[in-house]
Amino acid sequence: MNVAPGTIQVWSDLLCPFAHVAIHRLRTTRTELGLDGVVRLDHHTFALELFNGPHSRPGTDSEAVGLGQLAPEIGFRLWTQPDWTYPSTVLLAAEAVHAAKAQRLQASEDLDAALRRGFWFESRPIGHRQTILEIAADVESVDVIELAAALDDGRARSAVMGDHAVAVTDAVQGSPHLFLPDGTDAHNPGIEVRWEGPWASGYPIAQSNDPAWPEKLLRAAAA
């Protein structure tokens, strides 16, 4: 991976709870270390739905419960809105994150975080254009008019599919997978789980949880 200095490249899916934990811990630790503005997150799409088909609410709910016990400070919530509003696809939201990146890297990072909050905390259907733009309107770093234009003409779709062309290779192992400028990489850092029942649709049982990994990666990216 070609990773720019001062960045951590993050490959993930917006509905992946493991990615939500990793990104939350990266952002929180970065602030604690005083590295905001020093280390940026460069988001890329590991689109689980392009591997597995439409997102499954039961699988997401079981993972959220399991990881909510592992990392209660992150505040996972089960889906509380009607079933028919659950986002079975988030490809348009992934396009939005890429389109925001064309504005600037900080806009992309802020929108990604806001979309994850919208889904995991507020049960918002982030696969829908209107919801994406409503969330973006509250993100100061994002130009919403430009974002709407990008969604409407599909200019970021090729970036999502370009990421998928990489995701299907051995270069990326899953969501989340982090890459540093020095060549270091970490897949689902700090967490090891086993599955009670079918993998990714049963219940994840944590076997290890190391909250110290973000500091190591952030300091390495800043060096």
Automatic annotation (TrEMBL):
Gene3D superfamilies: Glutaredoxin. GO terms for molecular function: isomerase activity. This is DsbA family dithiol-disulfide isomerase. The keyword Isomerase applies. InterPro entries: DSBA-like_thioredoxin_dom, Thioredoxin-like_sf. It comes from Kribbella pratensis. Residues 7-183 form the DSBA-like thioredoxin domain. Keywords: Isomerase. Pfam families: DSBA.
